[in-house]
Amino acid sequence: MITTNVNHCFQKTGFDKQRLFYTQGDYGLFQCAEPCHQQPYDNEDIVRQMVEEQQKMRVPTKLLPRCPQCGKNMTMNLRADKHFVEDDGWHKAAKRYEKFLRHHEGKHILFLELGVGYNTPSIIKYSFWQMTWGNSKAVYVCLNSDIDEALGEMDALMVDDNYM
Hints:
Oligomer: single chain
Strand order of the largest sheet: 4-3-5
Strand content: 15-25%
Largest sheet: 3 strands, antiparallel
Radius of gyration: 19 Å
Shape: elongated
Distance between the termini: 23 Å
């Protein structure tokens, strides 16, 4: 599963992390804002504590996350600029995804696109189109409320909200 969602929902539903590649980061992780090292940190406990201890929408200064390595501010692990942390787990997930694609190259495969928009279309949408165009045994299915027009000669099944 490749996703550009950063909302941690796949993990919360129990989706096997070993089968997940979240390319754009994750709201459930902090990283050093510098970053001084390539390691994100789970943030659930500290975020829950911030929610409990906030007053008038202000979080106590003592709870603001600091990097355990350099002491500077932490930030969300999101691909927003050149400071995005790609740790060992991110690279392993990328390799698993690439291996899966190589293994299924030229074979029957379904590229199932669920709700992918045009914020970062090159990561999933355009890649799925390209792999479908290049494989006569591939099928592309798009489930999205913002439906795309027919994609040239590529056979595609597109379902919008009115169909369901």
